[in-house]
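Dear support,

We are seeing what looks like truncated structure output for some complexes. This example has two components. We would appreciate it if you could run it in full and send us the complete token output so we can diff it against ours.
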Amino acid sequence: MLELSPDNLRVPKLSRPVYAIGGGLTDFRKFYPEKQSTELCMEAAKMAVTEDLGMGVKEFKQLVNFSVYSQFADHFGDQLLAAAKIHDYLGFDPLGNIEVKTGGATGGSSVLAGIMAVASGYASLVPVIGWERMDEVDTKQGNSYIASAACKDFESELGWLYATYYALMMQRYLYEYSPNRETLAKIAQKNHHYAKFSPYSQLPGDLTLEQIMESKIVSDPLTFPECCAMSVGAACIILADEETAFKLTDKPVKVVGVGSGSHTLRTADRRNMPVLLLPNEDQGLYKDRENEWPGFTSFLAARMAAYLSYNMAGIKDPVEDLDILETHDAFTVSDIQTYEDIGLRPYGQGQEFVESGEAYLEGKLPTNLSGGLLGTMHSVGATGIYQLVEVMWQLKGEWDKFHGDEKYWQKYGKRKPVDFKSLQVDNPRRGMAISHAGTGSHVTSIIFERGW
Amino acid sequence: MERQKVDISKFKKVELIKKLFREDVPEGVIVRPNPKDYNHYHSYGGLSPFFEGLTKGKLLGTECQNCRNTGLWLPPRVDCPDCWEKTEWRDVDTKDAKVYTYSVTNYPGAGFKATVPCPLISLEIPGVCTKFMSYLSEFGEGEPYIGMPVKPKFRIRKPTYTILDISWVPTS
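Here is the complete output from our reference environment:
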């Protein structure tokens, strides 16, 4: 039994306000030999500065005092201290920088580190830049590299494949809660569909539920379209203190909630505890619950991150109080688990979030309009940053600018779909992104709010 | 003056990569092979008795004398995560081991040493506080299933000295 003290659950505070003011992305591809990681990071940073902030590079660089780099796997990139190369390539020397690593949550953790740098007063303008180079090995070796982020003594040898560790959870989730199998496939269908409207996306497409469920099974019962992309690409988000933010933009997005949580790297080692309740859950909700918690069906790290960020942001009910959400949909099952961990529905009822229509563009809390990890990208170090860039663009009302403009489709050699539609949410005020590692080893939850 | 030479001529002619992931390398971009061929060495340190145990047909877990009620740790831990005291080795009683969850792996990553399909399982073992991950080395139609009684099988001859040295088979 794991016990948490009030101090363990202390709600974070920022010493001064922090804003996200600009973002940039590259497109995401399975194979990107045309550009080195340095070039991709340059492209994302340049877009954030010149196209989103709309300012000159030299003028911007005069204001920077620290930067954060986000890369998951040195062995993929085959370059230790790659951050130093990128920092130099961007001409930021001799400014200080750090590189952050927390697996799949590296992007979220990097933004968290950037927020800490600004909130503490250490820095006033901080670019956070993430990337992943996943095309220097074939897919089989790539899966093996990813699975070296499982326990090398007790897990990695049992498959060298993360999908199989998630499939264990999925099978248990199906057993405990008997959701419609189709609902899981609907998550993949939704995100591949929304990816169609993103010039950045790697795996766009309209798939039928049958196509998804009857695709080849990677690891029973997860099929190929239910597993995320392996991508190459970069993302950049720029964080600033209040004075700098309002100097550089009229529409800064304020950081109102941050939370991070963790759980054992080995899924096997998760001990049970009473459910940690979120602000929208009352004591009686799980009174008669017999299922183990968190067991194999929930992510304690996600619940912990949500608990801290909701309490910090004053979120009482996430479905009501948030207008846009990006989850770490690495697998369909982990997405439904996350809905419950972040309190969109009580445990065991996550499927209702999809079935009710709330997760869609027209719904109460549109989720992964970016196309997510299933449809658009999982260039690991970039992922958590990309999610927050998409949330920020939505809050600033800039979704159309960065997705609808023909020039971005042309830039990546793509044709804008004839049935293109705007996925800009109507006047959103608050949005959240969940960044997630391992089988839930690290999770961050970051909540942005319109700051003007 | 006679000068020494530095020579790289023993390297074989390099064949550039023209296709990867079923896509052509674009014109004007050089992609060269970057082979890796070297050994790593890995010590099991204080966990060595566990892997030694497998080669002798024994499944060992650890117990913290200080926090006794937690149950056995399997995978074992040399130090207790709760109180940071040293743990002690114990035999794991697998009599009532059952499948807690499973998946059948079809497309494993590189380096996987078993044949596919390979049923991956997590085990529920009374007295153990964790859900040990392993695989089923014999299975029939409809197997594995959640709740399936299983017993361990050890690779005593030619051990791999990895976690693959223990697998599970149906009890009946």
